[in-house]
Amino acid sequence: MELTAVHEHVWVIRGAVNMGLVRTQGDGLVAVDTGLDKQAGKTLEKAAKEIGLPLRAIVNTHAHADHFGGNAYLLSRTPVTVYAPEGEAAVIRRPMFEPEYLWQGASPLPQLQNKFLLAQASPVHVEYTPGVPFEVDGTTFLPVALPGHAAAQCGILVHDVCFAADAYFDPPVVDKHGVPYMVDYLATCRSADSLRSVQAAWFVPGHGEPARRPDAVIDYLKQRHEQAFQTVLAACRHPRSLDELLADVCRARNLAPANPGAYVLLRTPIAAYVTAAVGQGRMEIIMDGGKLQFLTIEK
């Protein structure tokens, strides 16, 4: 466990998924996200004991399994209040929604029902609204709207620290995945850009290193997204189905999803690029022999 203080009242538990602990005026702690699973919950519990204060609440930034997977364990250990964004809370309460929507709404494959995509269910006691501050144990938390990676994702601004969720990723994380996961390409870019105007001493991404300013990292993320978007447009100069397009992108960017989970996590952002291109009038939809295809409109 690597516990890093970024403010006298804020700590980051750094790992594959960063988790935060915030000291409240009532001398309690609020967790910002709880990691992937029971083990992450135990790590967070250990960090709270090291600080020497009780856990009062959990604030989730969005409803992906790797950000609320520790909720259930922590709730089994102590009666905490769980806060989550409107529009994300339903998935935290019923986590099967995540593998279902990744499998186009159908009953998901068994291979998609693992801890990386299917966390244990957790209650959400309070649904918060972007831009509307809420108070926990005497301390004010400001939700910052950061949709794109998830439909209703929020960052959390508290004690001059911005927990940016998955609005951006460090370059090694971007390079590892090739095409970073998101559900809305244009919203992802807008949200990343919006962080430039947030006044905070520290920015903490969900994956990567805390930084004083994330501007260069945001530039890199947007550049890589734009490259992938252009790859999609180029591949669709001839009619392509989504699966054909995914294979084209994999060849162009040297990607090789090794299992159904990796496949759907790559297919979703590629579908998001297609949606953006169609919405901008840069791509048309073609139905041919029961096949849904996409064709770039040359200008």
Describe this structure in words.
The radius of gyration is 20 Å and the shape is globular. A hairpin with a 2-residue loop joins strand 8 (134-136) and strand 9 (139-145). The chain has 299 residues and is α/β, with parallel strands linked by helices. It has two domains: 2-224, Metallo-beta-lactamase, Chain A (4-Layer Sandwich), CATH 3.60.15.10; 230-296, Arc Repressor Mutant, subunit A (Orthogonal Bundle). Helix 1 packs across helix 3 (71-77), helix 8 packs across helix 9 (242-253) and helix 9 (242-253) crosses helix 10. It is built from ten helices and 14 strands. The mean pLDDT is 97. 35% of the residues lie in helices and 23% in strands. The strands form three sheets. The protein has a seven-stranded mixed sheet, covered by helices on one side. Residues 16-207 form the Metallo-beta-lactamase domain.
Provide a quick synopsis of the model.
35% of the residues lie in helices and 23% in strands.
Quickly give the CATH architecture of the largest domain. 4-Layer Sandwich
Structural class assignment = alpha/beta
Order of adjacent strands in the largest pleated sheet: 1-2-3-4-5-6-7
Instruction: Please state the CA-atom Rg, rounded to the nearest Å.
Output: 20 Å
- Beta content comes to 15-25%
Distance between the termini: 54 Å
Main sheet summary: 7 strands, mixed
Secondary-structure element pattern, one letter each: EEEEHEHHEHHEEEEEHHEHHHEE
User: Share of helix among residues?
Assistant: 25-40%
The number of helical elements comes to 10
At CATH level 3, the topology of the largest domain is: Metallo-beta-lactamase, Chain A
Mean pLDDT: 97
Assigned CATH superfamily of the largest domain: Ribonuclease Z/Hydroxyacylglutathione hydrolase-like
CATH class of the largest domain: Alpha Beta
Shape: globular
Low-pLDDT residue spans: none
